[in-house]
Amino acid sequence: MTEARTRILNATRELFLAGGAEAVTMRSVAERVGVTATALYRHFENKDALLRAVIGAGFESFGGYLYRALRGSSASERLRLSGQAYLDFALEQPEMYRTIFMAPHPAVVACEETDGPHQSSTFHFLVDRVRECMQAGALRADEPEGVAIAIWAHVHGLVSLFLTGATGQTEPVFRETYRRSLDRLFAGLDA
Amino acid sequence: MTEARTRILNATRELFLAGGAEAVTMRSVAERVGVTATALYRHFENKDALLRAVIGAGFESFGGYLYRALRGSSASERLRLSGQAYLDFALEQPEMYRTIFMAPHPAVVACEETDGPHQSSTFHFLVDRVRECMQAGALRADEPEGVAIAIWAHVHGLVSLFLTGATGQTEPVFRETYRRSLDRLFAGLDA
DNA sequence: GTCTATAGGTGGATAGAC
DNA sequence: GTCTATCCACCTATAGAC
What we know:
Chain A has helices spanning 3-19, 26-33, 47-68, 75-92, 94-102, 106-115, 118-135, 144-163, 171-187. Chain A is mainly alpha-helical. At the A-B interface, helix 7, helix 8 and helix 9 of A face helix 7, helix 8 and helix 9 of B. The structure holds a DNA duplex.
């Protein structure tokens, strides 16, 4: 029924993940699908609607990564898995990570308005993980919000520096850097 | 003598700081200066040369901020002032910060090739501050490079989240967040 | 050094035939 | 639903007159 719509969406996502939002033009998407640019307007109102659909799916994907961390059997395990999920998403979908967290495209803002504030829901998820760690005695009692910001900033900073090439590291080396750096941060947060 | 060149550079910098690299077009610069776009080619080879000049000045400005931190009278004071200088630069020249550290424009790469690696020299500066703190007994003995990455990632992460609006904080509130978050990190790094 | 005129490219979007 | 033809906006850059 809307199979054409799906094919267009896939082509857009592929172009987007390969070259970012600027690689997505009505012409490039159309060429990849095998139709002319004008045909796309039968399925999407305009380019912005196309980008919003792809980025919205990216938000959902990120949410899925985080959600899996809830499988952990203890508060500290769930927090640890959250950090791992964050890293996995960033390394497996770097262009999506860049768009959502590093260079907010106008379409990202539009997504937040229609689907609710994704970025702040990420923050609230982390605050919940931190709070339950404090209640379980795995983290020293402190303001959960402040500690959550410190953790988020830390993982986001590490990932950003890696993705822009500032660390000059390969992915396996960076994974180790990520682990050790979080250990250093938690050395000051642990109970 | 090269007064025209200076006026062009100023106009470019103003446009750049207001709207980023994409706000800089030969037409917009020319309009701001009060000439036609073609006149600019008498003073700069092309648009890229124009951007490189502005971004190169941004790098120098950032270096100046860091350099002032060396006025501190002790190792730990110099490290503290470095963190403050980093924050000041990011908040006073957000668009320049964004360009240099968050969304490496092709012109940034070009600057690094001609003027030397600025990003890695920032890292080395920080490693030096960390190392002298360890030697002075102000930081626990550890790998200086790993600790420097942790600190850099932390400050960069905080600043990035603020500049993208993810924290939802005002600047004065964020300055306090920045201070407290660094305190939390150093709680695990202090001797 | 600055102008006008112009070439040449990219990209979003619509009209109307099929 | 998809096509061709087309418009419009905006961009970098050059040639040659003044």
